[in-house]
Amino acid sequence: MTTEQVAALGPAFTDYLRCFRPCFVTSNTFAHLGTYCRGLLSDLPRKSVEPTALAAGCAVRTLQEFLTHHVWDQDGLLARLQRRIVAEHLPPPGKKAADELGVVGLIDETSVPKKGKKTPGVQRQYCGARGKIENCIVTVHLAVKAARPRPRG
Known about the structure:
This protein is 41% helix and 20% strand. The protein has helices at residues 3-8, 10-18, 27-41, 49-56, 60-68, 74-89; strands at residues 103-113, 123-127, 132-146. Strands 1-3-2 form a three-stranded antiparallel β-sheet, with no helix packed on it. The radius of gyration is 18 Å and the shape is globular.
């Protein structure tokens, strides 16, 4: 996405992130979530902390601390995300989906072994790729697909 496209989505994205505010202890920590997410959605060639922070006019160290030291309710955030997906993509009780396929959702936690300490989020933790506790980064990916109605005739 270009900077202009991201900027045009700004108000809707801010509103989307607002539902996760109760998962953060302080408003400063919550503000960094928006900065980091906007950086991931931007057209920056590198999505690491330094270019993201510099593009947002944020101190690099501040964004690094957000990813490594700030505390938020990860389980609460995941629960809110799941409830939102259900509310937006599943038919209300008693109603049928657009077709028999309905909605398919996938939440995938992926771990990648990493050496060094410069990548945000790298720490000794369970690494599924290796099947043991090791220095790695864990990312979570979300995909939702609603089936299209089949053409008639």
